[in-house]
Amino acid sequence: MKNGKIILLTVLFLFSTAPLFANTSITGYYGYFTIPITNTPSRGAIHINTGYIFTPGNFYISMNTSVLKNWELSAGKEILTGEGQEISAAPFILGTKYMFYRKGGFQAAAALQAELLGKAANIDGIPVSLYGVISESAGKLGYVNIGLCYIMGIDAGYAINFFIGIRKAVIGDKLFAIGEFTNYSIRQDIGLPWDDERGIFNGGVVLELTDFLKFKFTAYDLLDKFLTVGLGGELRLKVF
Question: Nearest to residue 187, comparing CAs of 3, 16, 26, 17?
Fold first, then answer.
């Protein structure tokens, strides 16, 4: 009984000392819905993000952490559940990011992400993406992130990708609107089939219920097919 009380008090302490500052993307990066931002998690924090994407009907789980200041490690995986899908496999995604510059409201970071596909994907090579991201506080407009990505390891038909995202407070520090535009799919020909068209806009809202718990509603690919919506939640723990 005494051990149980100690464990309970420890969990409550972790929750009570873990403020939440940004989102975990579905690929694992500390970012918006699908793109990375310059910020990294605070040292010793673990962000766990999960949710459901209604079409084609898949779950996802992603997480990130930081063991050194301004250095991030991340991982993400989409779990395919629907039958008769055009996609046969989703990669296990590993990433890292380092914020190397900060002055005033301006920040810059570099990142790397690898997609471990497995034999079921029938794709030769391992897609590796190199990211460069800058961000700036835009006053009443919100917080803006802009980045470029260079793809190596496979022939995707293109090598340079671009993305931009903005996060705007709607109600105090509790409700935020997020919009992001990319000219690429978050996965190469697998996972969510967004790369049929090269212009993708995702939008949604994030409700921060407490300092350690938030919920998300996302509409994916609003420019073309309005493919799907997703519901998700995120938990932040301070572990060391």
Answer: 26
Query: What's the pLDDT tens digit per position in 112-168?
Result: 999 887 666 666 778 888 999 999 877 766 778 999 988 887 766 667 888 999 988
Q: Please give the Cα distance from 229 to 1 (Å, whole number).
A: 44
State whether residue 214 is helix, strand or coil.
Answer: strand
Encoded tokens for 23: 């989102």
For the chain, the domain total comes to 1
Give the domain range for residue 136.
Answer: 2-238
The CA distance from 207 to 102, in Å, is 27
pLDDT tens-place string over residues 160-180: 888 999 988 898 889 999 999
pTM above 0.85, yes or no: no
DSSP code per residue over 10-76: HHHHHHHT----SEE-TTS-EESSSSB-S--PPTTEEEEEEEEETTTTEEEEEEEEEEETTEEEEEE
Cα separations (Å) of 30 from 62, 72, 119? 10, 8, 28
Domain with 165 in it: what CATH number? 2.40.160.40
Quote the DSSP letter at residue 211.
Answer: S
